[in-house]
Amino acid sequence: MTETRSAQPRHPFVEMTITRLLVMVREPEMIFWVFVFPLLMALALGIAFRTPSETQVAVAVEPGAGATELADTLAAHESIEIIPVDPGGTETALRDGLAHLVVVPGDPPRYRFDPIRSESRLARQTVDDLLQRAAGRKDVWTGRDETVTATGSRYIDWLIPGLLGMNIMGTGMWGVGFTLVLQRTRKMLKRLIATPMRRYQYLAALVAARLVLLGLEVAALVGFARLMFGVPIEGSLVTLGTVSLLGAMTFSGIGLLTASRAQTIEGISGIMNVVMAPMWICSGIFFAASNFPDPLQPFIQALPLTALVDALRSVMLDGNGLLATGPELLILAAWCAASFFLALRLFKWR
Amino acid sequence: MRPEQPTTAPAEPALSCTGIVKRYGDVLAVDGLDLEVRCGECFGLLGPNGAGKTTTIEILEGLLAPDAGRVRVLGCAWGEQDDALRARLGIHLQESQLDEKLTVIETLRLFRSFYPRGRSVDAVLELLELDGKRRSWVGKLSGGQRQRLAVGCALVGDPELLFLDEPTTGLDPQARRQLWAVLQSYRAAGGTVLLTTHYMDEAHVLCDRIAIVDYGKLVSEGSPDELILSIGAPHIVEVAFAGGAESQSADLQERLAALPDVDTVRAGESSGAWTVTAAALHRTLPALARAAAEMGTEIETLATRTATLEDVFVALTGHRLRDD
Ligand SMILES: Nc1ncnc2c1ncn2[C@@H]1O[C@H](COP(=O)(O)OP(=O)(O)O)[C@@H](O)[C@H]1O
Ligand SMILES: [Mg+2]
């Protein structure tokens, strides 16, 4: 490109979209939160919740008479790990999660554990079986295990669409809402409306810049998940793209709405957190939304992030097309239309 | 420019307003201002901070609705065909901050794209003397360069009328002169300017006519020289007597006021110092020396200078233009 060519302005909508994109990608923090942070999250959670090769049960034996024999009996089994403890240290080991279960030698032995922890209940069951067998109990029969570790049904497979939804929400809200309020506090909105610029083109360019970014962020996260963990995409890429696009539009609209009147950075940050926090918790990013009580379900299901995450999972994990995700897409479209409609009525340029 | 009108109908002014009022709660920011800016002139709104300059100029720019009054810009009223009117105006706002992460050329190109016609970005870069900085981020520019760029963004549309709200506030003297040069070349090409400032020297250098405003009201209006002549005493004598506080008496003030050709007498900054405005130094100064001798005090320092717009402001309002 020659100097003179580069100085030729293009259509204002194109210029505004390009400059918005440039401002966003030149902000290192933006790159971190949009591109790096979701990958780090996926990496950390993917490693923390990877399918273990063998269920390991951590057991501490209360020191005292018979403790050594008991520990030896248990240690002979590969599914059991004996945690060495000092006298009086068992309580701490249990509390800190180092040991799932404390066995107190005796006849019969006693088991000390927190029944709220599922791994502790599992440990109690395993240890009890082993000790009873060692004491001479005969099992009537042994069931055959069929373990499921196929791709597509692991936690990481379930988590990635959730993280993607969360990212689409965050980038849309911050990319549109925060940018607008920043421009308002810097009196740039006022400066822009002092030119013959068309106002709708400015807002459209802001959303367009955000949508360009969307392509990159979806590709980065989904590509990373695929390379690192082999997370599958059962549905078509076009469907995945369409759902992401509708999600991004919806959260751009909500971002625009939150920014329509806010006059300060503190104000918009507060509003955004109030809007997003319930969805981070309730919309089933990290754990299923169905964990919440039934009376809350209608509200949770109506949240835009719940709809987006459900639709993404349905496409990525179940291989569904657009028709099968119809209800979720309808909810998203309703939020999208309502937020843009309201935002454009309420929006203040000054 | 526009052809000469028949003698009975004078050429329509580039901008006029009558009776504009803007109230913020209890504060009357603009209190019934009438202004008229002629085609091709540089008109200055001069007043201290809080005088209502920004409020006034934003009303004229159609960015703020007045509570009362009428505004006409280039023959149009706001609310008729705003986009077409805006394409003919260049507007610089006092407080807007350009994106720091865009380069100079990206910023100019963005603003240029809004205007249906205008100057080439390269021509504006040259005018602003920012050619060497075309690829620098706005955030890396000096204050003067950034301010020139902000004015450049108002010039890309090749406006008929340019609004500038305190374009040089906070700049060092050299940066201010560079910006003045940009404006003078715009003027030389026939452009009309309305600018606000609280720098009297800036108003004097740049403006053909000045409106002095204070508390939202017009205090006086005219060319810089007319305004200085209007206070009737174009010379300022700064005199300090030895002895300090005791000579700071009403008696002394009366004696000074009674000297020939003296217009006003004010106590100066330090004790024993006085500021005297006088019409004819050759009569006032000898009389001042005699008076000092008669009173038995000595003149410690004596300086004379020509009256400035600052003195005009003080003479008309009784307080100073700048608080610092
Ligand atoms: N948005 C506003 N809300 C309340 N008061 C304002 C507002 N803008 C200006 N004012 C007040 O109006 C007066 C004139 O302000 P302004 O026009 O900014 O003066 P200047 O530009 O001459 O410094 C000041 O007293 C200022 O405090
Ligand atoms: Mg101001």
Biggest chain pair interface:
A-B, 30 and 34 residues
Order of helices and strands of chain A: HHHEHEHEEHHHHHHHHH
User: Which oligomerization state do the chains in this entry correspond to?
Assistant: heterodimer
Rg of chain A, alpha carbons: 27 Å
Describe it.
- The complex is a heterodimer of chains A (about 350) and B (about 325).
- With about 350 residues, chain A is mainly alpha-helical.
- Chain A has 14 helices and four strands.
- In chain A, strands 2-1-3-4 form a four-stranded mixed sheet.
- The longest helix of chain A is centred in the middle third of the chain and has 31 residues, at about 155-185.
- The mean pLDDT of chain A is about 90.
- Chain B is of the alpha/beta class.
- Chain B folds into two domains: about 15-230, Rossmann fold, CATH 3.40.50; about 230-305, Alpha-Beta Plaits (2-Layer Sandwich), CATH 3.30.70.100.
- Chain B has eleven helices and 13 strands.
- In chain B, helix 3 packs parallel to helix 5 and helix 4 (about 120-130) packs antiparallel against helix 5.
- Mean pLDDT of chain B is about 90; it is low at about 1-10.
- The interface of A and B includes residues 26 and 196 of A.
- The complex binds adenosine-5'-diphosphate and magnesium ion (MG).
- Adenosine-5'-diphosphate (ADP) binds near residues 27, 29, 47, 52 and 55 of chain B.
- Adenosine-5'-diphosphate binds near residues 47, 50 and 55 of chain B.
